[in-house]
Here is the input.
Amino acid sequence: MSNHHIYLPDQSHYRLEEIAKSIEGFPPQVGIKKGIDCVGRKYLPKNFWLKKPDSSYRLKGLVGSVPLTDADRIELSRLLPQLPEITDNMSDTEIDKFFDEYYKSENRPNWEPDIKTPSDRYKAQRDYDERITKHCENFILKVHSGHFHLFDSDLNALRGASLHPYFAQKNALVSREDASKYLKQLELDFIISNSKKSRGKSERYWTTENVNEMREYRKNSTAKETAAYFGVSVTRMNQVFKDNPRPEEFNHDAPIQNKNKKPTTNIITSPFEIWNKQTNK
Here is the structure.
């Protein structure tokens, strides 16, 4: 499981897949990073203790993969302007071209930067999808054992064949009560925005780390999708992006959402709420 804060919008039901993704965090993203930001690790050659670069390193093979140190990042950053640009979405041909120039350089380090190939990115996405499916399957098992319930779009309880993992993952709805219980069973800390329970934890929401998370998510998502994922209004999200204050400067008493406006997410009302509205017409 990914180490991050979990935010759920204030609504009565959530899609099962939405709960699983809130647990795992962001899916692997590409097309965002460039240059040194694409390199987090390095490979060491078998004779990595040699001080001078050896042009035959690649032929001799590489051993191990270790994180870059601050000194490594500085050393590589100085060299990168002389080489083809690195991105996080490079093809095999582009990677080969980069390393052809990298190994021609007399100033290169005596190690090789770890650049993710298309097959690496495919594996990362596949692993992420498998973890999402596993969370959904675990929840469905608890439904079968009677601990939780799943519903269709009309809020009819799902049973039998309708609990097939693929169908349930994409279409089944989880009540907020069951979602909360499930996350507590996993000992995960979560926030339901705009709820009485979440207001006491609002200080944790507005941190530099979480604002940066929201910025990264926004790069590959619409404003409404990003706001819904983090449980805030689009207006509040834009305000945070514009002001960009330090955590201690946030006004924790400011409303996260305008209660006079309809929510931007597709909130599914309960049968009681529907009946109550019809009765009061």
